[in-house]
User: What shape does this take?
Amino acid sequence: MTQDRTGLLLAALAVAILLSLVPLTPVLAPLRPYWVALVLIYWSLEVPKPLSLGAVFLVGLVLDIVSASLMGMHAMSLVVIVYLVRHFRARMRFFPPWQQALAVLALLVNDRIILLWITALLGEPVPTWHYWLAPLVGMAIWPWLFLAMDLLRLRSRQSNRS
Amino acid sequence: MLYLLLSVLLMAMDQSGKFIPRFRAMLEYAVEPVYLLAELPARALRGVSGYTRSYSRLQQENERFENQLLEQAGQVQQLAALAEENRRLRALLRATEGRRLEFRFAELVSVNLDPYAHQVVIDRGAADDVFVGQAVIDGQGVMGQVESVQWGQSHVRLISDPEHALPVQVLRTGQRTVAYGTGDSGRLSLPNLPTQSDIRPQDMLVTSGLGDRFPAGFPVAVITDIERDTGGAFAAINARPLAALDRGREVLLLLPEQEQPE
Assistant: This one.
């Protein structure tokens, strides 16, 4: 059972990482939601025995290597997100969907602020306002991702039982 | 908390150390198939749009390319005459023979990396004798240099990286300076020119060949604006890179220089 569940998580993460690499036109590129974070938020909210922060850290490192970003940047941002989700898990689970989406927006905006702080230390220019659109897209996608993941989990559980 | 500290440490080491970048370069071999997989949808889309392009559009394009070819053939004829003249003059001066450069064609792998990485991936690697530090240009100008090499792919660092400095020369006056990346793919900055130096907007910057990474004479950027009133000894000068750093598809790798046979 647990084997099966980690399989589903790995598959979801693999798809999320691929989605964050798929080329978009320069106009759409800043709108790309933070797929890996969305999957991890779902997982630490809904699955009874969620991931350890160490595993989250490793996922972040994989994302760093794949996207050629500074080593540890995504690891840090994902650890912060998952830590916050766990802290507020009891409350967030019983939010109505729209409120939950707002909470996700807050998490993603907070994450953008952390990333902005890191890139500013690297001497990068301050990004344009497009930079803040990605969390909004993430929020819009959240309910759908939530439903899809729920469905997948249910199906894998049923196929396990039969 | 522990993981936060660890990630800060890693970032610092990646930024200024030697060990982490080397370690990453090794891991990037494993990433190669991931890129191939991520590229699939884009490649399929290109294939479909290639098939469905209309006849009239193809015809138009063909006509345009033919005109371009004719025009450039004319320019090349002129160039051949100039090259011959140059050779004779050099022989008169007993200067060293000019060197001829060879190129190799490469294509960008369509994956979007982190925008702050200032890197692109090309589809040539160790199997095609790509080496770290090799210069990469596109049809318009200098793009960057090879950062790490895998089997069939390599990562190229773009000249827009804030960590990247490129020795350049103003084509009109021959003044040498250094062009730094700014993190913005449409802007390079030249902070080392004195306020009274002879430079104007629209001046062309070419590689100066100092530093031995890039051969001399390749177009890099065009000066866009000059702020002389900075209150310091140096002017604040911005330039626009000529290469399509954020949207190109085809690039050229410069092969190591070979002595021209006498």
